[in-house]
Design brief:
The complex is a heterodimer of chains A (327) and B (385). Chain A is α/β, with parallel strands linked by helices and 327 residues long. Chain A contains twelve helices and 14 strands. In chain B, strands 3-9-10-6-5-4 form a six-stranded parallel beta sheet, sandwiched between helices. Chain B has a two-stranded antiparallel sheet with strand order 1-2. The longest helix of chain B is centred in the first third of the chain and has 26 residues. Classes of the chains: A alpha/beta (327), B alpha/beta (385).
């Protein structure tokens, strides 16, 4: 076991992927010499060469579109989109091409392309650098959408995503890039939890708190604080946003009878809405309270000096938890 | 645009533009066969085609026009939802299509029926898409002909990426991306030019400038001849008579060869004309003059080859009649096959979304199957799934 930052976990995972399969490529803006603006690809171009770790022109649609062409040729590209807010120029290629090619070809074409997107706020950034666009992709059939929350998951999930024959949108919680966790880089991914399954990050009995990406840590901290008040929160790290692991979610909510969903993306038409509907269908007679949601407001992402009011924090999450006990 | 000011002088507005140069044919216009069917030589493009090759191209041209005509009538009869006609663009497609080596990979738009023909794709497969039976029915790798891309210009990036793959494989192959004049305004096409250029990718950009993007004439897309755009991206561009099958063959072959030899991309602007509507839903009489079409009819891509073959004694009446008879047969077969094409079973709509169906898709499929089964046998739902 080694203690690694989330960024380093990704780096080690990508290194393994490059070592294991000569068809794996990394492409994006500044991923080469610089190692990416978050250093996720640090040192990879030096070790694997410019043909496999490709500094691309500054054009997101071009990155994804050429990655599709490379995948058609048998390659497995991992694209880096530098920031969440910069994925939009590539949305046509992702939504209309990448997601639909298997369906269009009646199963003849696989596009094993991974699109890494640093996501979420809390880093004091300017506009377009703090967004959570996961639902645009979760709503698109043909894409898998996953989010890692710590270094160990980052290390395993990026490799599982590269191995996957479906296109994967891979969200990385940018304000957690420097959080450290124990990672078993020697064992590899053989024993790791499949990346389309959710994980009970903390067992509890009174209420289920569903979260992913940057809010997993916040939710674990919320659970620790609640425990001091004698309340037992079960924290589930969803990991896979599409498809949803409804079995894990359902099992937890049937046990606790209460459910809160937390995400940074706006509550309106967010993942919480889909989960609330499905939990209500599956757990109606187990629920002691309606499924509550806590998340970003129905506004654009605010200027950073007031972003703390937009982002769900420990107090807002516990406020929602408290409200589920008010029914 | 000029407007009269109150003082009766001609005022210049912000929308005023100098005369356009988009249709200037004086520059590089490679032509090897005139509209009258006369062979002319071009120093850069010696032709390596035998009389037999040219007769075969004539056959290709006639057959794809026939297939196109049949498809239009099938749409009119309600057998197809829509059809995008290639009428007038046969030479650009057959010339470039026959220039391909077996290993070269084609990335078409939705109008490349002639190129598809050259790649050995059964025309009936093309009709599947327009009938609504599939989104693309053929095996792309087998034919080295990718599925039709409907979003304008998106396939140029796929072609460029594919070419980057060829480069990494060290293969003696090239990619060719087809697109139209309208597509040259798309970001994706411009990004494809940038990527192809900086990576020196083995690709040919084959632009069929058919003068019209639905209702918008070329001057709404460009202030300069399209082939000149290449210069700004750092690779050669040239214009060819897109109604001259021999010239289209020659320039494409040379550009593909250059790509395979590591000389990077070439932009070919095939100067042609969309003689029909944009698709069967379109009405060109609303936006263009009949006289324009009449002028282009004089430059018909098939007639000039016929004239050349006949005048040179390269084709006798028997050959020409044989081609016409074959066209009739092919047309009849396509018509018949289209009418007999079955719809996919309803539950096929759940297939091939992911490599393995997800839990949600499995669940929705089962629920919908049960819903269909809830109808009495003999009704729509219960049957045929």
């Amino acid at each position: 076991m080694t203690k690694l930052t989330l960024s380093r976990g990704l780096n080690e995972g990508l290194r393994k992927a490059l070592e294991n399969d000569p068809k794996v490529l990394i492409m994006g803006e500044d991923v080469g010499k610089l190692g990416g603006v978050f250093r996720v690809t640090d040192g990879l171009q030096k070790d694997f060469g410019e043909a496999r770790v490709v500094d691309t022109p500054l054009a997101e649609s071009g990155i994804v579109g050429t990655a599709i062409g490379l995948a058609l040729r048998g390659y497995r590209p991992v694209c880096e989109i530098q920031f969440d807010g910069f994925v939009f120029p590539a949305v046509d290629q992702i939504v209309s091409q990448l997601a639909k090619m298997r369906y269009r070809s009646r199963g003849q074409i696989s596009l094993p392309v991974v699109i890494r997107i640093p996501c979420g706020g809390g880093i004091g950034a300017v506009e377009h650098h703090s967004e959570s666009p996961e639902m645009l992709f979760a709503h698109t059939a043909g894409l898998r959408v996953v989010a890692c929350s710590d270094a160990a998951d980052a290390f395993a999930m990026i490799q599982q995503s590269v191995d996957c024959d479906d296109p994967v949108i891979f969200f990385e919680p940018k304000r957690r890039y420097w959080d450290k966790a124990e990672v078993d880089t020697v064992a590899g991914v053989a024993g790791a939890l499949p990346f389309d399954q959710s994980r009970v990050a903390l067992e509890g009995t009174d209420v289920t708190l569903l979260c992913y990406g940057p809010l997993v840590r916040t939710c674990l901290e919320s659970a620790a604080a609640a425990r001091e008040d004698g309340r037992s929160i079960e924290v589930v790290d969803l990991r896979s946003l599409s498809p949803l692991d409804m079995d894990t979610i359902t099992a937890s909510v049937r046990k606790t009878g209460r459910c809160v969903v937390a995400h940074e993306a706006p509550v309106f038409a967010g993942l919480g809405a889909e989960i609330a509907a499905r939990v209500t269908e599956r757990c109606f007679y187990h629920l002691e309270a309606p499924v509550l949601r806590v998340g970003g407001f129905a506004t654009p992402y605010p200027p950073s000096r007031i972003e703390e009011h937009y982002l769900p924090d420990l107090d807002r999450i516990l406020d929602a938890v408290d409200r589920t006990f008010g029914y | 645009m000029t407007v009269e000011s109150g003082a009766a002088t001609t005022a210049v507005t912000a929308l005023d533009q100098p005369a356009l140069d988009t249709t200037d044919q004086a520059g590089d216009f490679v032509q090897l066969l005139t509209p009258e069917g006369e062979r002319i030589d071009h120093p850069d493009y010696p032709l390596d085609l035998s009389a037999d090759d040219i007769r075969n191209m004539y056959r290709d041209l006639v057959l794809v026009r026939t297939i196109d005509t049949v498809a239009i009538s099938l749409q009119r009869q309600g057998e197809l939802g829509i059809w995008a006609s290639l009428l007038g663009q046969e030479a650009a497609q057959i010339g470039s299509g026959r220039a391909l080596s077996p290993g070269d990979m084609v990335f078409p738009t939705y109008r490349e029926h002639g190129v598809a023909w050259c790649r050995g794709i059964d025309p009936v497969k093309l009709l599947e898409l327009y009938r609504g039976v599939s989104h693309g029915g053929w095996a792309p790798e087998e034919h080295k002909f990718h599925l039709y891309t409907i979003v304008i210009g998106a396939q140029t990036l796929h072609a460029t990426g594919y070419a980057m793959g060829i480069q990494r494989d060290g293969a003696d192959e090239a990619a060719i991306a087809y697109f139209g004049d309208g597509a040259t305004s798309q970001g994706d096409v411009n990004e494809a030019f940038v990527f192809a250029s900086v990576f020196n990718a083995p690709i040919v950009f084959f632009c069929q400038n058919n003068q019209w993007a639905i209702s918008e004439p070329l001057e709404k897309q460009s202030r300069i001849p399209l082939y000149q755009r290449a210069r700004g991206f750092g690779f050669p561009g040239l214009r060819v008579d897109g109604n001259d099958v021999l010239a289209c063959y020659a320039v494409t072959q040379k550009a593909l060869q250059a790509a395979r030899e590591g000389q990077g991309p070439t932009l070919i602007e095939a100067f042609t004309y969309r003689m029909g509507a944009h698709t069967t839903t379109d009405d060109p009489t609303r936006y263009r003059l009949a006289s324009e079409l009449e002028m282009w009819k004089l430059k018909d891509p098939i007639e000039r080859v016929r004239a050349y073959l006949v005048r040179g004694g390269l084709a006798d009446p028997e050959f020409l009649a044989g081609v016409d008879a074959e066209a009739k047969q092919v047309g009849a077969r396509v018509r018949e096959a289209c009418r007999n094409m079955p719809d996919p079973p309803p539950l096929a709509l759940f297939d091939h979304v992911y490599a393995e169906p997800t839990a949600i898709i499995r669940e929705e499929r089962e629920q919908y199957a049960a819903y269909l089964d809830s109808f009495e046998a003999g009704e729509d739902g219960g049957a045929g799934r």
